Amino acid sequence: MIDTMKNIKVTKTEQSKWDSVDWENLPFGRVFSDHMLVMDYIDGEWKTPEIVPFSDLKLHPATSAIHYGQSIFEGLKAYRNTHGEVVIFRPDMNAKRFRASCKRMCMAELPEELFLKCVEATVNVDSKWIPNKEGYSLYIRPFLFATDDYIGIKPSDNYKFMIFTCPVGAYYSEPLKVKIEEYYTRAAAGGVGRAKTAGNYAASLYPAKLGKEEGYHQLVWTDAKEHKYIEESGTMNIMFVKDGVLITPAEDADTILPGITKRSVIELAQDWGMKVQERQIEVKEIIEGVANGSITEAFGAGTAATIAPIKIIGYKGTDYELPAVERREFSNKVYKYLDDIKLGKVEDKFNWIFNVSEK
Ligand code: PLP
Ligand code: COI
Q1: What is the total count of domains within the chain?
Q2: What's the pTM value of the predicted model, to 2 decimals?
Q3: Quick one: pLDDT at residue 340?
Q4: Handedness of CA 161, 75, 113, 81 (dihedral sign)
Q5: Average pLDDT value over all residues in the chain
Q6: Is residue 354 a part of any domain in this protein?
Q7: pLDDT digits (tens, 9 = 90+) for 244-259
Q8: What is the mean pLDDT of residues 140-146?
Q9: Which residues contact 165 (CB under 8 A, 6 or more apart)?
Q10: Which of 2, 125, 191, 319 lies at a 20 to 30 A Cα distance from 244?
């Protein structure tokens, strides 16, 4: 396991906010734990990571991330399992994806070992913030942004890596109504859709707002060229069960975030003997499949969203309704199994769980 705390300088808060939190009512992403990790990249090297009391940042107005968007992030979760251990779900995958995002955004690449060590230390220092309640977890937000104070377009020389954590419940509280987007685009081939970079989320806000005004929780993005193929949804990958086969858009288009939840669902389905296809999926196939009943399940898969059932898909002014959530055998089973792995109720035969409990 990773060598925790070594070289990480820890300054603990003198005034924990833990007692002032309404633990019965935890909105997603609005409650922050007591500490955060900060590590600068200066003169070509990563400096000593420091864990300090959670606080505001002081930034130069020309900080280049603000102007030119060299800014990436990750999202992962820690749980307290039924044995009382602190565990994180597949953080090695987040470390890899983070590094890939660094590369695409021309930022200093954070070594995966260092990412993992920083995540582990940040979770440990605030492990009492992991909610002890079904469906709840500690959301971990690592991020990196460019810190050169320079007005001009070039990759920044300096960066700041940070991690904070938030005790959270579900991101979506009800089955989703989504709309297939036919005009706006989140990502185009050759662009940055594969990277977990801030601008991708900024680009999605206006079209998502229009979708919300029509009563949809989220959009389903389609390819930028023809709006003919399904890609992914707002904060999650999208998956369907069609005639008993699990289908999801292939990742080879560099327009889709390679999701860790989706990958885990695919690996589980295969282990259970289910046929899986990662391929191009036409919008037409989905609409016809929902209308004729061959598509029995549709859901989003993501860290924040978990397994989020989709109940309605809107397309060209018509709403297509999927079978009731209770009748969805696969997504209910996969949701429960993923939960059981994280909580230590079933054997972790895939080695997805990192036990980061302090020794
Ligand atoms: N797609 C987008 C755009 C996302 O923001 C997320 C969330 O991280 C996902 C997909 C799902 O990825 P993961 O399962 O790794 O959280
Ligand atoms: C995540 O699942 O970590 C996400 O990216 C969603 C986030 C934007 C809230």
Answers
A1: 2
A2: 0.96
A3: 96
A4: positive
A5: 96
A6: no
A7: 999 999 998 799 999 9
A8: 98
A9: 32, 33, 78, 122, 123, 126, 129, 138, 139, 140, 141
A10: 319
Answer yes or no: do 160 and 181 share one domain: no
Same domain, 63 and 127: yes
Do the bridges between strand 86-89 and strand 76-80 make them parallel or antiparallel, or are there none, so unpaired?
Answer: antiparallel
- For 45, residues 6+ apart whose C-beta sits below 8 A from its C-beta are none
Q: Is the CB of 91 under 6 A from ligand 1?
A: no
Q: What confidence score (pLDDT) does residue 358 get? A: 82
Residues 162 and 180 in one domain: no
Query: Separation of 236 CA from ligand 2 center, angstroms?
Result: 8
Ligand at shortest distance from the CA of 233: 1
Q: Is there an atom of ligand 1 within 6 Å of 232 CB?
A: yes
Q: Ligand 1 pocket, 257 CB below 6 A?
A: yes
Asked whether residue 254 falls in the same domain as residue 305, the answer is yes
> 266: CA distance to ligand 1 center in Å?
15
- pLDDT (average), residues 170-182: 94
Which atom of ligand 1 is nearest to 97's Cα?
Answer: 15
- For residue 357, tell me if it sits in a domain: no
- Measured in angstroms, how far is the CA atom of residue 205 from the centroid of ligand 2? 14
187 and 202 in contact (C-beta within 8 Å)? no
Q: Can you give the residue range of the structural domain that contains 194?
A: 176-342
Q: Report how far ligand 1's centroid is from the alpha carbon of 201 (Å).
A: 11
Residue 306: CB within 6 Å of ligand 1? no
In the prediction, which pLDDT does 134 show?
86
